[in-house]
Design brief:
Layout (H helix, E strand, L loop, with lengths): L8 E5 L6 H12 L2 E4 H8 L7 H11 L5 E4 L11 H7 L1 E6 L2 H4 L22 H8 L4 E4 L5 H15 L5
Parallel strand pairs: 1-3, 1-4, 2-3, 4-5
Helix pairs in contact: 1-7
Length: 166
Amino acid sequence: MAIDESNSVIVLVGHSGVGKSTLGPTLAEALNYNFFDVDAEIASISDGGSNGLSTRRGLLQGLSRCNQSVIAAGYEDFSDEIMGPQIKERVFSVWIKAAPNERLGKTVIGHLFSPASLTSFNAISRLEQDKLFSFADLTVSIGSLDIPEASKLLIDTVKAALPLRH
């Protein structure tokens, strides 16, 4: 699937700590897109206590309408309980695939939220979560690449999915 005018919103999904918030701004800059981090947006509109399903879903619904944007979603945001098929159909999702232990020390941890029982997504195994992430429109495996290498790979892979610009 290529990114087109109807889905010019790119949502980065993946496990917590893989680098969505770290790599997202670089991707957005390379594409001349806006960048939003769901966790940072939630922190800016609340004291951190309002991190429920409806808050996350509402924020993603709004952000998914901001054309030419890159959104770093929380790892549980790709669940049907939060993003749902309506939002998933509007966006181009990119699974940043790497084990968090491979990324340890390579990403900048900004706003960490631990929604221990917000969604059923949190209750399933990592393997089952990977199966859900595999439904993303594009997968970029960054493994243990450092930030510049991972950024370049992400940018090059996403740009290859963009239609030719005239």
